[in-house]
Each structure stands twice: as structure tokens, then as C-alpha cells.
Write a structure and sequence with these properties.
Largest sheet: 3 strands, mixed
CATH class of the largest domain: Alpha Beta
CATH architecture of the largest domain: 3-Layer(aba) Sandwich
Helix content: 40-55%
Number of strands: 3
Strand content: 15-25%
Length: 81
Amino acid sequence: MSTVSLTDAKANLNALIDRVAGGDTVTITRRGLPVARLMPIPNPPRRPVDLDALQALTAGMPDPGDGAAAFVRTMRDGDRY
């Protein structure tokens, strides 16, 4: 944990945020007294992707036909006039 004055914290906020993102805790002081503490937020654990569920979802989708370019062209030309 490190201590930084409020003046230095204002001048170097980006650097302090980088340090906190790296796991450090920073205490900000005003006239020598602690007034704030910057701490990293714990990230929730990530869930693994269920490939079977993803394949089942995409298998149930309708066939796009000619593709996205033809679809956009049809929409554009149909609304033009």
C-alpha cells in the first residue's frame, strides 16, 4: 500500500489507476490525513462457454439465404423510392 497527497493524485490520476488495476492499494491524503483509498475491485470468475449449447442455438437459426450483403441491398433498394 502506498500513500499519495491529493495534489499528486490529481496530477497523476491515470498512473494511480494503472497501479490500482495492477493490484496495488493507494491511500490519498489531504494535509497529511488519509481521506480516500483506491482499491482494486475483485473480478468475478468467468464461466466457461458451453459449446454444445452454442451449437444448438446456432443450428436452430434460419438459413440467411444469399447472405448479409444481399439482404442489406434488398432493404436499401426497397426503401429507396
